[in-house]
Specification:
Number of helices of chain B: 0
Number of strands of chain B: 11
Radius of gyration of chain A: 13 Å
Order of helices and strands of chain B: EEEEEEEEEEE
Largest interface: A-B, 24 and 25 residues
Largest sheet of chain A: 7 strands, mixed
Largest sheet of chain B: 6 strands, mixed
Structural class of chain A: mainly beta
Oligomer: heterodimer
Number of strands of chain A: 11
Distance between the termini of chain A: 38 Å
């Protein structure tokens, strides 16, 4: 079956520091990886979409300078939250797909970021 | 701007009752709809997908899609306490195939 392992599950970082989260796809080829943030205020926001052999596309209000993403192959992706502040708190989820359009997104279990 | 709108935000139904959840896209170019379910503390998992007009049934779950109005609905009959979860509607387009946008979700609570 298709699985996405995401780690760490939880992390606490000091305000102004950075943290990195990673996702590993198993059982399928992660042709595209999308990073989402789930928070009580704004629920499910798309941060950026990374597709192999294409540039990473960031949504409005999210930038590469703040959330750099790496997607070097068909099984791995990482995202870093740079200079984390309180408003960056939330559950970060990576969702990977093998094909386009009508294929299912498989999610990791999420990385819960707490900023203190 | 949220392009996938879900209603209601929260829904309480008694065990054995019918739960009806709604979702509309404000983007007229949407081609595909999904429903995902996320139990507390877990990752979202796909429940059902629907790509063409009409109805699709899987066990206690039925989804409807009206492409003209870009509206989809999920109906859960004989609701069980284990159905209590956040239900997320998602949509994507053929022209931007890899991008999937999610709605804010409906919190379903099934009371025993």
């Amino acid at each position: 079956g298709a699985l996405v392992y995401q780690y760490p599950r939880r992390t606490i970082c000091k305000s102004g520091t950075s943290m990195r989260m990673e996702c590993q796809a198993v059982g399928f080829q992660a042709t595209s990886v999308a990073w989402y943030r789930q928070s009580p205020q704004k629920t499910f926001e798309l941060i950026a979409l990374s597709t192999v052999n294409s540039a990473i596309k960031y949504e409005q209000n999210f930038t590469q300078e703040k959330f750099p993403i790496s997607h070097p192959n068909l099984s791995f992706s990482s995202m870093t939250v740079l200079n984390a502040y309180l408003e960056d708190r939330g559950l970060y989820l990576c969702g990977a797909r093998e094909g386009p359009a009508n294929t299912e997104v498989f999610f990791g279990k999420g990385t819960r970021l707490t900023v203190v | 701007q949220q392009k996938v709108q879900q209603s209601p935000e929260s829904l309480i139904v008694p065990e054995g009752g019918m739960a009806s959840l709604n979702c509309t896209s404000s983007d007229r170019n949407v081609d595909y709809f999904w429903w995902y379910r996320q139990h507390s503390g877990k990752s979202p998992k796909m429940l059902m997908s629907i790509f063409s007009n009409g109805e699709k049934e899987e066990g206690r779950f039925t989804v409807h899609l009206n492409k003209a109005s870009l509206h989809t609905s999920l109906h859960i009959r004989d609701s069980q306490p284990s159905d209590s979860a956040l239900y997320l509607c998602a949509a994507s387009k053929v022209t931007n195939a890899y991008k999937v946008i999610f709605g804010k979700g409906t919190h379903l609570h099934v009371l025993p």
